[in-house]
Amino acid sequence: MSDKKKNANGTAEKKGFFATLGSWIKRMFFGGSKELSESEKFSVENIDSPSKMAVKAFFRRKLAVLALIVLVGLFLFVFIGPIFIKMDVNYTDANLANLPPNYTMLDVPSELEGNIKSISGFADFTVGVSNDNTLYIWGSTFDALSKVEYSAFPEEIKEGNVLYAAAGLDHIIAITTEGKIVGWGKNYQCQFGYKANEADPYIQMPEEFITGTIDPSKVSQLVCGYQCTALVYDGKLYVWGNPSGMLNMKDLVEYSNPAEGKEAPKPVKQVAISNYYAIALLEDGSVITGGQTFTFNRQSGYSNMAEGNKVANLQAHLREKKVINIGATKNCFAILCDDGELLIQGANQFGEYDVPALVNEKFVSVVGGTNHFVGVTDQGKAYAWGHNDGKQAEVYGEKASVVYAGAKQTYLVDENGELLDSTGFKGYLMGTDKSGRDVFKRIIYGGRMTMTVGAVAVIVSTVIAIIVGCLSGYFGGWVDMLLMRITEIFSAIPFLPFAMMLSYIIQKNPIGETARIVIIMIILGLLSWTGLARMIRAQILAEREKEFVLAAKAMGVKEKIIAFKHILPNVISVVLVSVTLDFATCMLTESSLSYLGFGVQQPDPTWGNMLNGANNSIVIQNYWWQWVFPAIFLSIATISINIIGDTLRDVLDPKSSQEK
Amino acid sequence: MVKYILKRIMYIVLVFFLLSFLIFMIYGMVPVDKAAEAARNEITANKNLDYNERYEYWSAKYGTDGNKLEQYGRWLGVYKFSDGSRHGLLTGDLGTSRESGRPVSEEIVEPMKNTMLLNIISTIIALAITIPLGIFCAVKRGSKRDVGVQVGTIIGYSLPTFIIAIVFIWLFSVILGWFPVSGMQTPGYLDWSPARQFWDKMYHLSLPLIVMTFTSLGGMTRYVRAAMIEALSMDYVRTARAKGLREKVVIYSHAWRNALLPVVTLIIGWFLGIFGGSVMIENIFSLNGMGQLYYNALQQNDNDIILSVQMFYIAISLFGNLFIDLIYGVVDPRVRVNR
């Protein structure tokens, strides 16, 4: 029977505890809950409770209100933002690394929109040639480190004299009406012009192209890739540039210029360059890589998505087919056969294999962006698939006769060169970091992480502090002695080094990333409760000597109820102020740890680890957006929290409000 | 008084051992086996050796044989190694650095000097700025200038050190080019005269010092101001004013003397704090200090250094707290420490 009673009592008390907690907070902000009857209202003088006065005083302070608004805004930004803006934490793109803030990647110049002849884009900028032979460039055209401005055309390029133009990672090649091949941008890896050093592994642009002119009417295709270029001229394939951007470059050169005794090369029709390889389509409908077979070590798994099954041997499969078009993304090649079969070769990282199933239609051409393909059917409709992080693959059955793909853009053009639609990635609001990740998205997700870690750490530390402080202050004696010695021991531990050591130990042990972050939160909480515990203890020591406690004791109220119901509410203002200020401190500590590399690890972003690596002059000077934006967000958050905490302390302190 | 100090020291020694035990045990969770590593290195150098035999030799040498408690005793220097010798923390043997192979006690001399130099100078500069500023703000409480300083200090202590450091590097090193971005000395400094070496070092330390001073301004100014406001609201200040004393006398000899007590606590506490906090500054500016030593040791699993520096930080913190208690009695004769 006694057990049952105890149990019932226990649950009742538990409910009671939360109810009391609620009522404190309610009393804190809205005053006593006692409703006055109509007659009483007139008889009682209208008195605000101290906490109501404090709230009013708080809202009288403009700075504090501003800080509160900013903080709430930041909260909404980092906690609601991720619902709308999705981020793949592990996504990186070296081609788009270190880009400055830019939002013009899809801004086709209005002069070009009506008469497009060709559009070419590989990474951060796109070039277009109009039907009246004028060159246009848009996108992120400035390289922050080398200060190269791609939109500064060399003097050979004039209005109305450009026939072909192609954009690579960091260079542009154009062919003028006079037959001159002009390159600009960076050329330290022999993207154009002469080879600086014989020992360099780069392959130089053919001498006759540098000094002489060509017959522009014989040019069938010009493509640029990762610091390399391919030109199909008079049925012959020319490639030059950095061989690490086209690993089979030497083979292709050998194919075009065979040693004596070997068979002459067949005429080339088209070429496509991925991030690592180039393939060429011959006039007879076969595809060559320059070497003997498709020995692509980075790209494995041949697939025939049109039929939904895999092709065991692509080479053998293609022998019976006639290829009419080829395209390339960063990691894949698309090979289009004359019967409409579309083969995708490469790594299926972002859904490149998900070729749309067509009914009564077949593809007649295909182009690739960085991670997406766009195809045009014989019905004049365009379909896109693959990576869709910038809506570049949101094309399904739209009318188009020619399509062009930028890095993350899709341009649909009709037969007269009129731009029908353009869709895709507009650019990076706050630039990209050294791995090509969007700084803006990382700020949202990093803010969520930083604030979560800070909040959990504060909750842990406050709970410990309240328990220790209350027990120690109320009971005194040996409990106080013991707890205060423990507090002293904890406060003797130097914070940052110890946290670093604990984090290092966690790193050494095989623990999952989420578990690691949780442990870091708890460590921060465990190391930062001592100050508040002491404050609560001192406050309780002062409170328990007061008359109302004596009165409660005299009335025979239980010790536990006195401690938690009569004394603790008086401590809550101390706790509230401390929680606010500690929240800022914990955020700073987390950022400091992450900055040093001992907190949350990449690729999970926090505002602290986004600044990791910003302490060298190259980043500070050239890539200002990589440190300015996280720093601003972190600073604004901590400043507003501190202003709020400070104001709270002022308004909750009866002494200071009396003086006013 | 002497009895009190002895009591405190006894207590500190107890806490020190408790913490050393705690840290040794926590640190024991790192899955790094020095003996196995040494044995493996030997085996790769000389194929004829027997791994187990070498492993036993090295664990006996490093004292990693036996249970954790025995290892702890050996590390402290109170428990015998397998060969009967006894050396450890208490006998002044802090172990050997895994990276350089030098004794840790040698390894930490230079970094400790640098850290001390850096911390002492920055404390002095910070005090020279914050005390007058704090007093000024307290006296002119509520004025526009006070409010301005208050907002400034909130911003100052809300910003993390590394952001201030990055902004200062950008401003002073990159844009203005006044100071070097990082490092302790210009390359080739060894050929120079001692005086020139010293000034070269100071030149390299200027920017870290500026950043350290700047980061401490916010918190300390606020603290001095709060202590001073408290003191100025006391009755004795009113009495002093009523007596017709000059305002200067009232502020500096009546109020300030009383505000000094909490300020002294703060200064020492803060001075201790920057030892731990200097990890950040030393890392950003790649200065050869204790913090950077600790950071590198963590990066390179240099166990003996990690434990030694950790114990150094704890010792500093414990004795600093004792120092605070003692200085109370000196600054404020009302406080009897032996109570």
Structural class of chain A: alpha+beta
Helix content of chain B: over 70%
- Using the 3D structure, state the CATH architecture of the largest domain in chain B: Orthogonal Bundle
The DSSP helix count of chain A reads: 18
Proportion in helices of chain A = 40-55%
The rough form of chain A would be described as elongated
Count of folded domains of chain B: 2
Strand order of the largest sheet of chain A: 14-13-17-16-15
Number of helices of chain B: 13
- Per the CATH scheme, the topology name of the domain at 57-85 and 437-659 in chain A is MetI-like fold
- Rounded to an integer, what's the Rg of chain B over CA atoms? 25 Å
Please tell me about this protein's structure.
The complex is a heterodimer of chains A (660) and B (339). Among the domains of chain A are: 57-85 and 437-659, Orthogonal Bundle (MetI-like fold), CATH 1.10.3720.10; 293-427, 7 Propeller (Methylamine Dehydrogenase, Chain H), CATH 2.130.10.30. Chain A has 18 helices and 24 strands. Residues 1-13 and 292-308 of chain A have low confidence and may be disordered. Chain B is mainly alpha-helical. The radius of gyration of chain B is 25 Å and the shape is globular. Chain B is built from 13 helices and no strands. The termini of chain B are close together.
Which keywords apply here?
heterodimer, A: 660 residues, alpha+beta, MetI-like fold, Methylamine Dehydrogenase, Chain H, five-stranded antiparallel beta sheet, four-stranded antiparallel beta sheet, 19% strand, elongated, disordered N terminus, B: 339 residues, mainly alpha, 2 domains, 13 helices, globular
